[in-house]
């Protein structure tokens, strides 16, 4: 799974020049995050692109509306919100916008309003101005393993009368690991996962290698072409990962001989993104995601959304930008699959919450947002040293569907790298509270103290909250799919790759095909999936073998029902069709 640190845009840090103005700390880190080292004060004349998030008028109202249109038992199920209705929830109050803009102006800073709902302001200032506005101490921090450097501050503060209107400031105290961990072409030596060189043939069994044909057999996925042009699947692309049309043609010729090999995908770009076409520019992740959407969701239109690195703060950002980009469109995709992420601890809770709310806004409009759960087992998005279990992000956001990995067949077994656990930022979602409670009871004292769980259901809490010791954390993943020795073509070479980044586009393709049938029947697309999935768990293939070790432990064991390794299980296409009323 590609787990790059995708920091998004830059927030703007503001601070009154008058030191006598009462200030409050907005976020603080006591130590430099693992893997980083300070190189000293950032040059005062270095320019930094900052963006700050304004508090929305009614984010909790948006969350309630999302659940209302996404819960099958609700009379409003499927009545997705319009763009204007979503923006009305997300927009800042006139008071907040006026107060922050006035404050900026008094400090000789001009900020531009960004984001479809106008809930972001951005500006470019020198480090000296950022330090003064934020009461900060920006330093140059180097990520040791990659050598990349960033201007960050361990702490910042805001005037008390302004802090109430600002959700977060970025870049400030959020750090990101710029290394991407991508699926690697399988080696010739066979191992327990059945890896080996692919012959490029149509393999009907998933026991040795995974192809579209084996997935169609295993999950009952039809080969019948989709018919609805209004239906689409969007694939996120980051960190200069480029999807190759010639590789897709070769993939289809080898693994979907019944599909015209000239079938291709559309392209959208933002933040200076592109999609360079050459063998040298081939991206394993991008090719994987495109080949297992185009190659599984037969005839469903697929768009590759390439996010460049011009995303406000000069690093690998883009998560927030792509959400805002898609949210600004009148016609949004019915499915979005993303195979990138980071660790929850790398972000401030307020920034994580702001992104999660942006994801909720897409779900409220009818998009099923899926993210790969991560490849570090209980060590989070990627393997790392740890003494307590780590959480992947955005997989821990309760308003998306996180997809874990399995391998084998009859029965399927959890992949040991499949990230899963319980969020330290987001409270348990009501739609999964009962399923999680059953798992925690069966788990008993195993791993006690290593993760966020308090063995009881939250009472009278909002769907999403920053945890304060009252409840268990949101459990993830929600579902899973095959993710080992998945055959792709990249740079003209065929081979197998591993990762939950294989699993997310596979599950997304299943949803894309079901949406096609729903739209053809005059019904709404599924939109935010989780309330439907947790109330129809029998429509998934339960996985109860395997675990996700890490942090010096065996991790979480897969068990009957939901578990934090494979979620509710893998797709059963026909059962899902019946569950949605087709």
UniProtKB/TrEMBL annotation:
PROSITE patterns per UniProt: SEDOLISIN
Cofactors demanded by this protein: Ca(2+)
Catalysed reactions, semicolon-separated: Release of an N-terminal tripeptide from a polypeptide
Entry superkingdom: Eukaryota
E.C. designation(s): 3.4.14.10
A GO molecular-function descriptor: metal ion binding
Alphabetical list of CDD domains matching this protein: Peptidases_S53, Pro-peptidase_S53
Keywords for this protein: Calcium, Hydrolase, Metal-binding, Protease, Serine protease, Signal, Zymogen
Subcellular location: Secreted, Extracellular space
Region (Disordered): 180-202
GO biological process, one term: proteolysis
GO cellular component, one term: extracellular region
Binding site for Ca(2+): 542-543, 561, 563
Signal sequence interval, chain numbering: 1-17
Catalytic residues as annotated in Swiss-Prot or TrEMBL: 285 (charge relay system), 289 (charge relay system), 501 (charge relay system)
Record text on cofactor binding: Binds 1 Ca(2+) ion per subunit.
Keyword Transferase: no
Entry keyword Secreted: no
The Peptidase S53 domain, residue ranges: 209-582
SMART domains documented for this protein: Pro-kuma_activ
Record's function text: Secreted tripeptidyl-peptidase which degrades proteins at acidic pHs and is involved in virulence.
Name used for this protein in its record: tripeptidyl-peptidase II
Organism: Favolaschia claudopus
């Amino acid at each position: 799974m590609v787990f790059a640190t995708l920091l998004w845009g830059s927030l703007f840090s503001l601070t009154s020049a008058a030191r006598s103005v009462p200030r409050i700390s907005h976020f603080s880190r006591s130590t430099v995050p693992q893997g980083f080292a300070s190189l000293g004060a950032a040059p005062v004349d270095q320019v930094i692109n900052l963006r700050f998030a304004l508090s929305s008028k009614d984010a909790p109202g948006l969350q309630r509306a999302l659940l209302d249109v996404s819960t099958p038992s609700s009379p409003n199920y499927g009545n997705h919100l319009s763009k204007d209705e979503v923006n009305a929830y997300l927009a800042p109050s006139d008071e907040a916008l006026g107060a922050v803009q006035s404050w900026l102006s008094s400090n000789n800073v001009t900020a531009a309003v960004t984001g479809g709902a106008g809930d972001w302001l951005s500006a470019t200032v020198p480090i000296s101005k950022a330090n003064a506005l934020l009461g900060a101490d920006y330093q140059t921090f180097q990520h040791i393993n990659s050598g990349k450097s960033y201007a960050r501050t361990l702490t910042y503060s805001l005037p008390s009368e302004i802090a109430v209107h600002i959700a977060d400031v970025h870049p400030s105290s959020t750090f990101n690991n710029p290394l991407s961990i991508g699926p690697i072409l399988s080696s010739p030596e066979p191992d327990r996962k059945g890896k080996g060189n692919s012959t490029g043939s149509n393999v009907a069994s998933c026991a040795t290698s995974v192809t579209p044909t084996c997935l169609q057999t295993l999950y009952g996925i039809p080969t019948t072409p989709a018919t609805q042009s209004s239906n689409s699947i969007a694939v996120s692309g980051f960190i200069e990962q480029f999807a190759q049309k010639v590789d897709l043609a070769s993939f289809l010729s080898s693994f979907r001989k019944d599909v015209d090999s000239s079938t291709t995908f559309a392209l959208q770009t933002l933040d200076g993104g592109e999609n360079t076409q050459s063998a040298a520019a081939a991206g394993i992740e991008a090719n994987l995601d495109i080949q297992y959407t185009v190659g599984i969701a037969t005839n469903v239109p697929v768009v590759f959304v390439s996010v460049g690195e011009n995303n406000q703060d000069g690093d690998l950002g883009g998560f927030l930008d792509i959400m805002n980009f898609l949210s600004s469109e009148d016609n949004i995709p019915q499915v979005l699959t993303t195979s990138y992420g980071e660790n929850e601890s790398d972000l401030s809770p307020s920034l994580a919450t702001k992104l999660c709310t942006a994801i909720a806004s897409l779900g409220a409009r009818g998009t099923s947002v899926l993210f790969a759960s991560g490849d570090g087992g209980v060590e989070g998005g990627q393997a790392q040293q740890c003494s307590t279990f780590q959480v992947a992000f955005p997989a821990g956001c309760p308003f998306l569907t996180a997809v874990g990995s399995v391998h084998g067949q009859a029965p399927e077994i959890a992949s040991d790298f499949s990230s899963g656990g319980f969020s330290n930022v987001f409270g348990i979602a009501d739609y999964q509270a009962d399923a999680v409670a059953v798992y925690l009871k069966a788990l008993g004292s195993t791993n006690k103290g290593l993760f966020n769980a308090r063995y009881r259901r939250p009472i009278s809490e909002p769907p999403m909250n920053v945890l304060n010791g009252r409840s268990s954390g949101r459990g993830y993943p929600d579902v899973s799919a095959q993710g080992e020795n998945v055959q792709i073509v990249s740079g003209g070479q065929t081979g197998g790759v591993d990762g939950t980044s294989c699993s997310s586009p596979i599950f997304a393709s299943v949803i894309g095909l079901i949406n096609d049938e729903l739209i053809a029947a005059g019904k709404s697309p599924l939109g935010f999936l989780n309330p439907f999935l947790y109330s129809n768990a029998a429509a998934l293939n339960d996985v109860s073998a395997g675990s996700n070790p890490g942090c010096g432990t065996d991790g979480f064991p897969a068990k009957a029902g939901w578990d934090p390794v494979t979620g509710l299980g893998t797709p059963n296409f026909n059962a899902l069709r019946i569950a949605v009323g087709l």
